[in-house]
């Protein structure tokens, strides 16, 4: 049985050499071609000085060569560090410096971006994929060279790092989450087994490489010898275009974020296409609107739907397959534990709570991270050993309780439970009530301190197309359903929400805009 991610690729190339491994736009690579091309890249990297345990960054837009880059780096015994192509050069340079990255895999159209990153302070010894001016960084090969380069063999262990994903911390400073071949392999195995995925499935790759959702598509498809269809960036912002691509490519497993599903339901023109190939719709990353989910399930009656839960630190750890159309007033559970996952639910003192009582969810599983890169302070806070026995759990920061049916119910982030006006309020509850309005497309609720340090609730919403509801209508909706202490002190209507790089509502940005308005 394969223990390393790139062994999955080699095994698939041996079993299904001519089967399409990855498709993006008008290019595709079979498993034989992907394995050979990745091996050739490994030779270039090792010859340039990449060694076992190194971190190698990727700065590329979606393409089949992104997958070549990932497996080429893994075959070299290194870990890949995907950079967000849309983030500022200063942030990219921070990631490279923080993670000790000295080699970068890029593409020719990213030349100016690479120059900017180096100008922002990144110290690179070599760049593969494009030419730079002498003295800037050494060029270690081009994509055209891979047809003739000789592969090399590098020893790697299951406990070695395979990738480091950077996400923003509570202060906005990126933190690197380290996963090993063992944890990523465990996630590939448990997820493909949970949903009964098959070698003839066609998995979408919706998420960018720096988002943890991408790893199920990447490594689950290789484990199965299935086909992964990468969704190019130009389709992500246009729901009708995305719908057309999913249908044309006969996607059978669509793993995405709730925002994408909402946009498809509202603006995708789904009725124009044949969806008979679609059998699984998996979603995660944030709570899904039941209102939109009910409509989408009616449009895709042949597909099964599952809510997948798990922070980047743990990969997926629970899932809930919807048994049918949920009631309009339902709250979706995050379901039951994946195979091999252990949980604790603790109170503020670290003591286990009684069954059915709310508390913070802690996870112990083979799929969990090794830790945060170079952040012993964060590691000390996130790992919890309840009995000093060496059995470490990861604190998710999420509040849950066990429902009467045995499913875990998600109650919100630990830091989304606030005390305001002397009362405890779940911000996610306020958000769900606002989102339940027939006029609202999406809702966002957040808290910020006033001049006295007291936390006040603020709300924002986007409206469905053609709706003429105003602030007074939404406030009336909230007043009928929430106690006075949970009413937002401000409610702003947006034409569209600012988004993070992973497609989530950027609540920090919304909070900053409220602050700027108060200071004006």
Can you lay out the helices and strands and say which pair or pack?
Layout: H1 5-15, E1 20-24, E2 27-30, H2 31-48, E3 55-59, H3 64-75, E4 79-82, H4 89-98, E5 103-106, H5 111-119, E6 126-128, E7 138-139, E8 161-168, E9 174-180, H6 181-194, E10 202-205, H7 214-224, E11 227-230, H8 233-236, H9 239-248, E12 253-256, H10 258-267, E13 280-283, H11 290-299, E14 304-309, E15 318-321, E16 336-337, E17 342-346, E18 359-364, E19 371-372, H12 376-382, E20 383-384, E21 393-402, E22 408-413, E23 417-420, E24 423-426, H13 427-435, E25 440-449, E26 455-463, H14 471-479, E27 490-494, H15 507-519
Helix pairs in contact: 1-2, 1-7, 2-3, 4-5, 6-7, 9-10, 10-11
Q: TL;DR?
A:
The protein has 520 residues and is α/β, with parallel strands linked by helices.
Strand order of the largest sheet: 4-3-5-6-7
Percent strand equals 25-35%
Unreliable residue stretches: none
Distance between the termini: 62 Å
How many structural domains in the coordinates?
3
Q: Output the CATH topology of the largest domain.
A: Rossmann fold
Helix content: 25-40%
CATH structural class of the largest domain: Alpha Beta
Measured on Cα atoms, how large is the radius of gyration?
23 Å
> Helix count, per DSSP?
15
Structural class: alpha/beta
CATH superfamily of the largest domain: ANL, N-terminal domain
CATH architecture classification name of the largest domain:
3-Layer(aba) Sandwich
Largest sheet: 5 strands, parallel
How many strands appear in the DSSP assignment?
A: 27
């Amino acid at each position: 049985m394969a223990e390393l991610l790139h062994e999955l690729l080699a095994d698939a190339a041996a079993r299904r050499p001519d089967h399409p491994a990855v498709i993006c736009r008008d290019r595709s690579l079979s498993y034989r071609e992907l394995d050979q091309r990745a091996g050739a890249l490994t030779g270039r990297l090792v010859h340039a000085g990449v060694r076992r345990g190194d971190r190698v960054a990727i700065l590329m837009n979606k393409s089949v060569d992104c997958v070549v880059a990932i497996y080429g780096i893994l075959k070299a015994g290194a870990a890949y560090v995907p950079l967000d192509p849309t983030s500022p050069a200063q942030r990219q340079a921070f990631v490279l410096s923080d993670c000790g990255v000295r080699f970068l895999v890029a593409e020719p159209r990213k030349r100016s971006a690479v120059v900017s990153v180096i100008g922002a302070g990144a110290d690179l010894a070599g760049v593969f994929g494009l030419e730079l001016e002498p003295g800037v960084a050494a060029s270690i090969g081009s994509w055209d060279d891979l047809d003739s380069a000789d592969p090399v063999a590098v020893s790697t262990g299951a406990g070695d790092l395979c990738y480091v994903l950077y996400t923003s911390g509570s202060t906005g400073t990126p933190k690197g989450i380290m996963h090993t071949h063992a944890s990523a392999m465990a996630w590939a195995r448990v997820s493909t087994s949970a949903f009964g995925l098959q070698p003839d499935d066609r998995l979408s790759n919706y998420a960018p490489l720096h988002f943890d959702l991408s790893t199920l598509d990447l490594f689950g498809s290789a484990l199965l010898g299935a086909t992964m269809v990468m969704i190019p960036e130009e389709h992500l912002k246009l729901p009708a275009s995305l719908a057309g691509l999913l249908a044309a490519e006969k996607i059978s497993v669509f793993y995405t974020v709730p925002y994408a599903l909402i946009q498809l339901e509202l603006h995708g023109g789904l009725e124009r296409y044949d969806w008979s190939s679609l059998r699984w719709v998996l979603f995660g990353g944030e709570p899904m609107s039941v209102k939109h989910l009910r409509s989408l399930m009616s449009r895709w009656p042949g597909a099964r739907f599952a809510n997948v839960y798990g922070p980047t630190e743990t990969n997926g750890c629970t899932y809930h397959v919807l048994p049918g159309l949920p009631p309009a007033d339902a709250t979706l559970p995050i379901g039951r534990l994946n195979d091999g996952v252990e949980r604790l639910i603790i109170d503020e003192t670290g003591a286990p709570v009684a069954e059915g009582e709310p508390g913070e969810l802690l996870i112990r599983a083979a799929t969990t991270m090794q830790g945060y890169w170079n952040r012993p302070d964060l590691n000390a806070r996130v790992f919890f050993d309840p009995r000093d026995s060496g059995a470490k759990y990861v604190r998710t920061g999420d509040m849950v309780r066990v429902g009467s049916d045995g499913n875990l119910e998600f109650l919100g982030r630990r830091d989304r439970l606030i005390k305001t006006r002397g009362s405890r309020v779940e911000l996610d509850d306020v958000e769900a009530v606002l989102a339940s309005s027939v006029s609202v497309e999406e809702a966002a609720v957040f808290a910020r301190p006033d001049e006295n340090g007291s936390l006040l609730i603020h709300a924002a919403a986007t409206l469905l197309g053609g709706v003429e509801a105003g602030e007074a209508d939404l406030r009336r909706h909230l007043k009928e359903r929430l106690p006075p202490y949970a009413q937002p002190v401000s409610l702003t209507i947006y034409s569209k929400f600012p988004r993070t790089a992973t497609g989530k509502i950027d609540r920090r940005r919304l909070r900053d805009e409220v602050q700027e308005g108060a200071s004006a």
